Amino acid sequence: MWDKAHNRLIKGLNLPGLFYVNLLQVGFTGNYNEYFGYATDVDAVVYLMLVNDMIHGLYPEAVTIGEDVSGMPTFCISVQDGGVGFDYRLHMAIADKWIELLKKQEEYWKMGDIIHTLSNRRWSEKCVAYAESHDQALVGDKTIAFWLMDKDMYDYMALDQPSTPRIDRGIALHKMIRLITMGLGGEGYLNFMGNEFGHPEWIDFPRADQHLPDGTIIPGNGFSYDKCRRRFDLGDADYLRYRGMQEFDQAIQHLEEAYGFMTSEHQYISRKDEGDRIIVFERGDLVFVFNFHWSNSYFDYRVGCLKPGKYKIVLDSDDPLFGGFSRLNHNAEYFSFEGWYDERPRSFLVYAPSRTAVVYALVNDDDNKELVSEKKEDNKPLVSEITNSDKLLVSETKSDDRPLESIDG
């Protein structure tokens, strides 16, 4: 629970499986009878309702986040309206989907499958999205960065050494995975410490040998503290490629701070092309273009948009600051033209390099927004600040909006 009034985190209740103690072998399909049948632990549901009612009564500014993988209906509806009362739900399916995809070659990734998992939530139910969880940073599992780059991370992350195809691929996809998760996965974003810059090693707490009842012995680590830490210095080292990955994570946070796209009601997926490996969607006042193809880059690629005017790049995963190859001109201007395309009333033409994610914003000549990778005098990245105006570039328009694709349940 986050206490906004005192700017502090209060330890939450860990109640796994609370709803369905008798349904351990049941898979949920979305049928509401599966949630409101006799097998539901009514006492557990009422208990959570009482907990949320008490927390919000005592601390009106508090935010409660529930962990539920079943898709329980009414989970984020207020107690007064008959719901369980959480403010947010953890979108737990996303991390599992990325691991499932990373075990396959990119040729077998389906754009529609990615979109479905990221957007499969009830309309107006707030979710906290995350690309990977803390479990993947513990001994015995692998982070996204390690799935992508494996042992090359130990030898080829220094900038004074040549890169490898595996490193180039890993850094590019690491950035794309995190941005599309933040862009489509929910109204909040969660990260585990160090994963944002691709921490190369796992966490292993001091432990002894474990003796199981059947006589099996699980070896410990001799109470070693060697892996009981996070190497945050790697993300700050300007001679390592981890620095670029950390800069990108900072940039996407500041992009949200400047544009507030995660809390916008305007959300529209206009393209999920399995042949081109392109995903295009609008979130708030921004247009996101992802090219997941491993080799194909597209010139004059047409993307749909809602609002007319001039668009400019505000975030580019291929920026050299983020370890990219600088294939885009950040001074270019993109003008929309009339005519329906991908069910959008207007469109504009872009260059979409392979394995990149680019975010475009509608700009007015009177507004002065900077590209996320431009720098201040102190060499810190200037991330989409509004320098001459406190308003967003474009006002919210709802007349043509529709929700992200979602399936109840």
Automatic annotation (TrEMBL):
Keywords: Hydrolase. The keyword Magnesium does not apply. GO terms for molecular function: 1,4-alpha-glucan branching enzyme activity; cation binding; hydrolase activity. GO terms for cellular component: cytoplasm. Residues 268-362 form the Alpha-amylase/branching enzyme C-terminal all beta domain. It holds the Pfam family Alpha-amylase_C. Transmembrane segments: none annotated. The keyword Hydrolase applies. InterPro entries: A-amylase/branching_C (IPR006048), GH (IPR017853), Glyco_hydro_b (IPR013780). GO terms for biological process: starch metabolic process. This is Glycoside hydrolase. It comes from Trema orientale (Charcoal tree).
